[in-house]
Amino acid sequence: MQLVLTEDQELLAKTARDFVAERSPVARVRALRDSRDETGFSRELWQEMAELGWVGILLPEAHGGAGLGLAELAVVLESLGRTLAPEPFLSTVLLGSQALLLGGTDAQRKEWLPEVAAGRRLLTLAWQEPHAGFERHVVATRAEKDGEGWVLTGDKLQVPDGHVADALVVSARTYGPDRDPDGVTLFLLPRDARGLSVTRQRLIDSRNAALLHLDHVRVAQDAVVGEVNRGGELLEQVLDRACAGLCAEMLGSMSEASDRTLRYLKDRVQFGVPIGSFQALKHRAARMFMEIELARSAVMAATRALDEGSDDAAGLVSLAKARCSDAFVHVANEAVQMHGGIGVTDEHEIGFFLKRARVAEMSCGDAAWHRDRWARLGDY
Amino acid sequence: MADLDSFRKETRAWLEAHAPASLKGRSASALEGVWGGRKAQWADRDARRWLDVMAERGWTAPTWPREYGGGGLSPEEAKVLRQEMTALGLPPPLIGFGLTMIGPTLLRYGSEEQKREHLPRITRGEIRWCQGYSEPDAGSDLASLKTRAVRDGDDFVVTGQKVWTSYADLSDWMFLLVRTNPEARKQAGITFILMDMESPGVEVKPILLISGASPFCETFLHDVRIPVRNVVGEIDGGWTIAKALLTYERSMIAEAFGSGVMSSGQSRRTLADWARRYLDGRGGPLQDELARHRIAQLEMDTRALMLTIQRARDAAKAGQAPGPESSIFKIYGTELNQRRYELLVSLAGPQALGWEGEGFDAEELAVTREWLRSRGNSIEGGTSEIQLNIIAKRVLGLPD
Q1: What is the nearest CA distance from B170 to chain A, expressed in angstroms?
Q2: Residues 6 or more apart in contact with residue A362 via CB below 8 angstroms
């Protein structure tokens, strides 16, 4: 494993940086929020990103993708994270299409993946439930066998981009009690499935999420993604990949929050000098730098380990997520504090980073959950 | 790649043929192992033999040029050598400040004559070096050092006191900073010079630490004559060299502490095993959730630092010398070592309170002494506060 960017990755990073700088300022997130935009992101930008090859970056060429890895997607997501771009990468690129790619039938892949890569259709994954915390196997939503098909009943929450997804991969229990580690199965539901109601949720970061209520939703056997009762393992694989991608995005966001804060420390004058000359602030700025550097190494290692299929990939993903969760929250808190009064006004953009930090911290498991997982993987 | 593969094969075969069997599985780090020098005590003939065969091949300093006793290996080949040695459980044949600090400095700043005189003697483990930087009134403010060097013909006559000289009592030569121009701005009047510790007028006294150990000394210099030809770089131009050497020192310290391979035997147990010994004594998940999380946190933070060191190394292969970012290794590596011993002491509870004698086993006593010793980690080699200043200024560009 080499923890440096290849020339191709450097090039991709530059393209992404330039694109984001020109097309996706933080002001865009504010405008989407203030207008209570129904979509919550820009379909036009999404189309352009698909044309740049970013949406299908992880998909094989046979499905219209670029056949690249998470190491490549990470440099794109890092740039998007710099300006908090709300386009549906987590839901569509990392969760939904990865579930189909890793577990789906040929028919499911053929139907959905080329359309996804082209930017025409959106997917997501619904796995979180009330009372489950961050545990993936705690599933109360039930799928009962009914003739040749299944009937699903239950509730899902905070489904990323659930309000616009054209189809949703949903976890449901096909066997055992609610907290049984086994007995979970994934199903692919079209948006218009009868009995499925979707309600948009509004989170602090102005990203897009939805509640699902499944009231006897009937699906055929060919809606099963992966094996019946073995969906837990597939879910782990998909969420590990999603986690690594999310970490790359968080890395971009925390780097930007830190850069903005450093600029402020150099510009803001009090007592006749730039406040960045005060040692009390210098040391805290240096600590932020350290946290970001350590997080960057963990993210690079996690994405490469997943791409190489190495044995310690799961541990490295948990390391990356624990680090990024802690570091992003820390950096965002420090950024607001060092901006002083202006930092807590809605007018200033630094608050957007604080809000995003809180949500990203808890997406796909918070730091404590990932430390717990590290300990479990280490057998203690 | 094919070349590297055949190098790997040859290296493995050579190591298997030449490494003494008794050394396999012996752990070592940048601060634990064979230091060499005229005063070396050779309790172990195999360690001596290992040093000699490796030095013969240039592999005590694998990447140094062959004409100075090195192995002339590329960074990639040196990595292969390290990996193969690790795979066979072989310790480095030689460690010390010659290899980690003054050697790289001489390669970069030394004259041809100085390289030929000193580098081969370092690679063969003949000369052990110590560092004459800090003084009683020049700690964090190193550039305010007062040791005077007055020109007298072909010599400088040096008078003053150095402190925190690691292993001065066991070393043969010292690289030190002296003030050659008291009129100039404080950084501008400093010269970097090499001194034979057997010179008349050199007096060394060990310093006893809170841990009961004394790795450090005070070194008194009374009218010591040092030839002018021992100046590295320009007279009055030593500060740049001094700072470059400090980056090598920080890398060395970071690697030693970051690796978690510390001097006590405890390091070869996992933290979870240590906890089980005092908490529940069974296998499986630890019952104490708080302990479990503290252990995971420390393990994960250690791994993150190791990955960052690897990242810097991978970047260095692209040809960059260690820069100010090595400051984060020093701060974080030493803090991790301190946190590690804090945690070990805390997990052992009252069994960590013994100084010596009955009621405590050797491992417990060692952990407690190492915890006390570790408090110095964030002070020696530049305090964490100074390292944070360096990051703020040189990396982040914050104003003075």
Answers
A1: 36
A2: A134, A325
Q: Do B272 and A379 touch (CB under 8 A)?
A: yes
Window 258-287 of A: residues touching B by CB (8 A cutoff) are 262, 265-266, 273-274, 276-277, 279, 281-283, 285-287
What interface predicted TM-score (ipTM) does this complex get? 0.95
Structure token pair of residue B88: 């066979």
Structure tokens at A372: 């717990």
On whether the CB atoms of residues A253 and A259 are closer than 8 A, the answer is: no
Give residue B28's region: left, alpha or beta (phi > 0; psi -120 to 50): beta
| Closest C-alpha to B388, from A242, A175, A286, A108 | A286
Residue A345: both structure tokens together: 């006004």
Nearest to A269 by CA among A256, A278, A258, A257: A278
* Contact between A273 and B391 using a beta-carbon 8 Å cutoff: no
Q: From CA B247, how far away is CA B105, in angstroms rounded?
A: 10
Task: Look at the block and give the residue holding tokens 């510390």.
Answer: B262
Coil, helix or strand at residue A286: helix
CB-based contact B129:B103 (threshold 8 Å): no
Cβ neighbours of residue A61 under 8 Å, at least 6 residues apart? A67
Of A266, A301, A368, the CB nearest to B398: A266
- Say if B396 is an interface residue toward chain A (CB within 8 Å): yes
How many helices (H) and strands (E) chain B has is answered by 12, 8
SS3 B254: helix
> CA-to-CA distance for B181 and B235, rounded, in angstroms?
9
Over residues B234-258, the pLDDT tens digits come to 999 999 999 999 888 877 776 666 5
B58: left (phi over 0), alpha (psi -120 to 50) or beta: left
Token pair 């789906």: residue: A104
| Window A:306-335, CB contacts with B under 8 Å | 318-319, 322-323
Here the tokens at position B98 are 């010659």
How far, rounded to the nearest angstrom, does the alpha carbon of residue A17 sit from its chain's CA centroid?
19
- Please give the structure tokens belonging to residue B99: 């290899």
* pLDDT per position as a tens digit, A14-46: 999 999 999 999 999 999 999 999 999 999 999
Q: How far apart are CA B375 and CA B208, in angstroms?
A: 14
pTM (2 d.p.): 0.90
